[in-house]
Amino acid sequence: MERWRRTSFMLKRSSSSSTEGKKEEDASISGGEDGLLGFYSDNQVVTLPQGHRFPMDKYRATRLLLEGDLQLRSILTTRPAPLASEEELCLVHDQLYVQRIFMGMLDDQQQRAVGFPWSPALVDRSRASTGGTVAAMHAVMQGSRRMVAANIAGGTHHAFAGHGEGFCVFNDIAVASAVSLRDYPHLCNTESPILIIDLDVHQGNGTAKIFENDDRVITFSMHGANNYPWRTKMKSNYDIDLPDNTGDEEYLTILTEWLPHLIELHEPSLIFFQAGVDALKEDSFGRLAMTRQGLLRRNNMVYSVCLENNLPLVITMGGGYSRPMTASVEAHGDVYRSAALRYGALRLRGNLSVH
């Protein structure tokens, strides 16, 4: 199968972009047999130095928000994530790097690139964050009727094979993709590849680099053109560079055009959705201007294309850095709530078929 040409797009600002108009169909439908299975790793507690800029508390806050939502009681199941094994991690990461993480042997420069101080708790937390995505992948690929599962963490797309950066130790989506290629080769292969839809505001540079020569994984990243990573951007199969202050309508118009195109062209067997919410206008690092409602419409676009094409879906959290963190937590909650409601309602009606 010929390697798909890597394509980068820089979008120019339209002079008449409207932020009003379309409204996504309301996803608040109760009911459902199983709905969404979500794995969490906030039980692996990492204490960061006072004043650290990473919002570690958002993971537990998002989970508690979801578990406290009465409309989700019958359609959301949460479980602690298993720890990814060394064997699983080494499917994409260099063994020496994994061992240095495990033993706390990174040098100062490598540790600064990761962004977290080393501790045994960080090792367990990073393994659980990766293991949650691996477990979610197995949940949708092992032959059950489940078509969606999620990690209420993960999306650590800046981790490369041999180093971490940007608050990412291990690349959970890359590891889960590699495990899927190993365990389900009859489903995931060059004829029916894995498709990674990365909608975090920062490019998924580590993921792009890891799979740059692998026809079995297609990487799509739609991100801010002027955002981190500035010096380590890589080439995804598709890179959509958005100008500063891109709002809902411009963003959603572009995504509406791309999603069906990707499905039609590649006929994927499995979708990973990196659902970062740092495109919010309230985000400290985002530089875009999306609203909470716009992100909800974005989420439902991804869910709709997966449902319409009967494609198994794994959702991961990704970035969100509003201060205070309330806006990010609410938007993260929307990612999982809307999935539980959409899939729960359809399962109740018996419209989800075995893939």
Describe the structure.
By secondary structure, the protein is α/β, with parallel strands linked by helices. Helix content is 37%, strand content 13%. It has a nine-stranded parallel beta sheet with strand order 1-7-6-5-8-9-4-2-3, with helices on both faces. The longest helix is centred in the last third of the chain and has 24 residues, at 326-349. The model is unreliable at 1-5 and 12-33 (pLDDT under 50). It comes from Sphagnum jensenii. Residues 56-327 form the Histone deacetylase domain. This is Histone deacetylase domain-containing protein.
Q: How many helical stretches?
A: 10
SSE run: EEHEHHHHEHEHEEHEHEH
How much β-strand is present in the residues? 5-15%
Mean pLDDT rating: 90
Tally of strands: 9
The main sheet orders its strands as: 1-7-6-5-8-9-4-2-3
Largest sheet: 9 strands, parallel
Class by SSE composition: alpha/beta
Radius of gyration: 19 Å
Helix content range of the residues, please? 25-40%
Looking at the structure, what is the overall shape? globular
Report the uncertain regions: 1-5, 12-33
Termini distance? 23 Å
